[in-house]
Structures are given as structure tokens and as C-alpha cells.
Amino acid sequence: GGWGMGSGGGEPSAVKEPITGITFPGSMQAGGKSLELMGCGERKKKIVGPVAVNVYAIGMYVDQGAASAAGKGTSSEAAAAKVLSDGSFTKSLRLVMARTVNAEKIGDALAEQIEPRVRGTGAPVEEFKGFFKGLDKLENQQVVTFTQSGTTLAVSAPGNRTSQFNSAPLCKALFDIYLGDKPVSDNAKRAMAQGFLKLCGTI
């Protein structure tokens, strides 16, 4: 906590995700760096027929200097999403619950998306699932963060529970869920890509 003295530019402002009403701070500390929010969106899950519920909101944060250098000349949302997904700069996904759900369900749902993307790579999907299995419930408004530094994915959950997975394919797969060709939230992908184009000075 604490505001620190920050840079002359002041703190980036917080953003409210419009569908869930969840607020994302403009910056967060992760991977030993101060990361800046690119954008956020909601993850819905269909329950019956056309009825869907908001499960969580997801926001993406990046190391501003390294990310803008990697994105130099990026001019389309598709290209921006690709740089965000594939870039080797420190980046983080902040998942904020919009309802209370058994943690194991969230882990299984993410693993279901990760599995087809890592087939044959030996990525530690079972261990990833096991981390969530070891948690109890994820309460409404609780936060899970996923931070990629190099090829390591650090996961942090309520109650100071943390785990690290050293796997480039796992990192790539997780970010691809939100930034790839079939994102689980169109709104999140669009917001993240637009935020990145702003960071790169394109829009």
C-alpha cells in the first residue's frame, strides 16, 4: 500500500469495468515492477439458454516502458493484441470475482481453456489446477493475479497463497485466452488492445 511519491505524471487513474462495476486500479506492483492498466472486461458464463452470469472481471497490466518499446509502430487492434499476448515484457492479469465461486471451478475452467493450447508441450496444467484446488472459495470481489516475468508465471490468490510455474507454453496459453483469436471476453480484448495503442501513442 501507500501512495509513494510516484513520478511527475502522477498515478494512472482507476478504471471501472462497466458491466460488473468492478474498479481496477490504474497501476499495480507485480514482478518487482510497477505495471500500468491497459484495459479490462467481463467474463460471462452461460447458465441456462440465453441466461448468462458475470463470473469475474479481468484487467491487464504491463511494464509501460518495455511494452511501449515492444509495440513501436503497432497500429491495429489485432496487432496490439498480438504484442500484448506474445511480448516478453513483464505483464499481469488481474482477475476480480464478480460472484462467489468455488476456487476449484475457476481453476478447472481456466485449465480447460489452457489444455488445448499447450498440448504436447509438457506444461504443468495439473499443477496449475492443483493450486486452485488447494484454495477454498473465491469470494465476490476477491482478486487472483497472474504475472509473467520471463517464462515464469506467478499466481497469487487471497490469503497470501502464491505459486510459480516455470513454463513458457503455460504463460503463452493463459494470455492467449484473453488476447488470442477466440477470446473468452471480446470486451476485455478490445479494451486491452485499445489501451495498448494509446500507450504506443497510436490513438
UniProtKB/TrEMBL annotation:
Any one Pfam family match given in the protein's UniProt record, by short name: Chalcone_3
InterPro entries referenced in this protein's UniProt entry, alphabetically: Chalcone_isomerase, Chalcone_isomerase_3-sand, Chalcone_isomerase_bundle_sf, Chalcone_isomerase_sf
Domain annotation Chalcone isomerase: ranges: 19-192
GO MF, one example: intramolecular lyase activity
Domain of life where this protein originates: Eukaryota
PANTHER family in UniProt: FATTY-ACID-BINDING PROTEIN 3, CHLOROPLASTIC (PTHR47698)
Protein name (Swiss-Prot/TrEMBL): Chalcone isomerase domain-containing protein
